[in-house]
Write a structure and sequence with these properties.
Helices cover 33% and strands 42% of the residues. By secondary structure, the chain is an alpha+beta fold. Strands 1-7-6-5-4-3-2 form a 7-stranded antiparallel sheet, with helices on one face. Helix 1 crosses helix 4. The longest helix has 29 residues. The radius of gyration is 16 Å and the shape is globular.
Amino acid sequence: MALSASTTLPHGVDSVTAVFANEDFQRHTSEFVGGSLESFTVAGDIAGEFSTTSVRTLPTTRLPEIARKFVGESLKVTQVENWEAPAADGSRQSTISLKIAGAPIDVSAVQRLVADGGSTRIELEGNVTSSVPFLGGKIADAAEPMVGKALNIQSQQAQAWLESH
């Protein structure tokens, strides 16, 4: 199942990148959806190539029933983002991988922070897949809207974070 989303924030790419690599912001977004941030690490200097790894525990109350049957009351989600160094115009790109412990779902996406004057256009494209025989397509179809929404929350919350910090 394909993921696709785009939004524009009235802040520069450097500011948006710094927010996405901020542990307090990651904790805020986890708690915003009723979960908790178990750990967050940044490897490298955010001025160049770097990666982040966040481990969250998230409630499954908003997942479709078919998904809850497999995963129970909560999910442990590990999100790894590998960021490239800025392009000449300041734009950035990261590859995102989500692994959900105990769930037969894999998510891979590419996120672009495109410099647009003093603003940043955030573009996200990716795929949700499931390895379960026969039911994999249905599980991925059921999970895709929730995964897409979760990834979009980060962009939406970045706007509020930048305005309040």
